[in-house]
Amino acid sequence: xxxxxxxxxxxxxxxxxxxxxxxxxxxxxxxxxxxxxxxxxxxxxxxxxxxxxxxxxxxxxxxxxxxxxxxxxxxxxxxx
Length: 80
Fold this sequence. Notes:
With 80 residues, this protein is mainly beta.
């Protein structure tokens, strides 16, 4: 496969804000309006993942009325 062909491949990206652990009972009782407390603190960096692998760290930004992520460092690279 040539490099030009690879450039057009689409890769799903996910942004991980944090995580939580809940019991099966809590999961069963979840409904609209349920709040799940995440392990991450507000303002902490988020993880950017591609294909399930960590590729970068970033911070959440608001663009107009949409959320976005500003990349602050790449995985495996030292952040300045």
